Amino acid sequence: MNIIVVDDEPIIVDGEIRAIRQCEPEAGIEGFTEPEAALSYACRQNVDVAFLDVAMPGVDGLVLAKALKAVRPNVNIIFATAYDEYGVDALRLHASGYILKPLRPENVRAELADLRRPPAPASEAPPAALPSSAALPAAAAELPAGGPGNGARRMPFVRA
Q1: What is the pTM for the complete model shown?
Q2: Is 154 helix (H, G, I), strand (E, B) or coil?
Q3: I need a surface site. Which of 63, 95, 107, 157 has the fewest CB within 10 A?
Q4: Are 64 and 54 in contact (CB under 8 A)?
């Protein structure tokens, strides 16, 4: 299973990766503090699950979710946020889940067990097709211009 975590706070990204790693020790997990970097990654790599913060400066998680679905229609979106008022918006996007922060392994485990589109086991999964070269510009058009910054920072893997 390939998972991404997107939050504008690096310490939150690290904590969420640790919580997810406790539930899915074999998963590939990448963390991002810039939505644009996460979208670019999703254009190059298959993403089964995306844990997204909702309230981020510049590009919020709702906009990022739409862009991710444009390039990876089967991605499972799980919103991880401190705000409960975005639940209706999450439902409209057909999100797989909605977790209030801080993420706890038991909440992560419950959401991963109830994914809208469970990924096939690695031994059965066909190779993921990469989106067409037109997909990134089309998905990037979903993102507002002048996002939160120029220095897209990709967080490293956290190994348990």
Answers
A1: 0.77
A2: strand
A3: 157
A4: no
